[in-house]
Amino acid sequence: MVFEYLFGAKDAEGHPMLMFAAGFIYTVISVPLALLLHESAASILAVSLAAIAGVPLILKIVEFESDMLDLYPKSVFTRETRVIVLYLWFFFGEIAGFTTAYLLLNPSEFSAATAFQMQDITYVESIRTSITGNAVRANIFDIIFWNNVRVYVIGILLSFIYGTGGVFILTWNASVIAALLATEIMETGSIITGIARFLAILPHGVVEYSAYVVAGFTGALISLLLLQRGWNRHLIRDAIIFLVTGIILLYIGAAVESVLFLAG
């Protein structure tokens, strides 16, 4: 793939739909390619292929942060919003690409391509089941919040250790969302009805996944900070702000989910 060579970070900054297109192209191609290479490992292989393809472009976006520091040295909101919006468009493109690819598969191929994603969804459901069985003794909010914090910390560590700007954590979460969305569409036999059922998770899902996007971006900021010559106080401040923002988002998401759980 040569997308990152055709469109630089500054081009994407002015036209964020280019990031959406990149995310869509990388993921919609990765699924059939993974099935062709090794069907039994297609679930994780597709995510890996899409993430590898996206790394050069995302790293350019991370480097673009340096230019933002010079242009907006004192405005955290102006500076980081411009960069994180590009992350979000890439993330949305990946969701659309994975969903499209999954819907084009036959049942056996779909099972192979979403095996680990469905395990992740099943794991979340098992947590909810355990909550149901221990509703009197357990604090529902604590169970949900600390499980999400665990995923959040892992996302930051992956982004920081491998220095990929959080591409893998973004791509993995996009594949899980897409697997759930595609399942709803196939079960209902209608795109509109499937999307409507899927949207039922949005009250807390949007907040939680926003936190995971922030986690990837925070790890990218820390990586950039270490690559800079000397400690840049603006990057340190931004990393701390986004780290705390992610925790706050997880707190809000857990609060909403626990209320919806009790109401249901």
How does this structure look, described?
The protein is an all-alpha fold. It has one domain (3-263). The protein contains twelve helices and no strands. Helix 3 packs antiparallel against helix 4, helix 8 (140-162) runs parallel beside helix 11 and helix 11 (202-227) runs antiparallel to helix 12 (233-263). The longest helix has 31 residues, at 233-263. It is globular, with a radius of gyration of 19 Å. The N and C termini lie far apart (46 Å).
Quick overview of this protein structure:
The protein is mainly alpha-helical and 264 residues long.
Q: Helix coverage percent of residues?
A: over 70%
**Which oligomeric state applies?**
single chain
Global morphology: globular
Main β-sheet description: none
Could you say how many structural domains there are in total? Answer: 1
Tally of individual helices: 12
Number of strands: 0
Order of helices and strands: HHHHHHHHHHHH
First-to-last CA distance: 46 Å
Radius of gyration: 19 Å
Tell me what portion of residues adopts beta-strand conformation.
under 5%
Mean pLDDT reading:
77
pLDDT < 50 stretches: none
Pairing-aware structural class of the strands and helices? mainly alpha
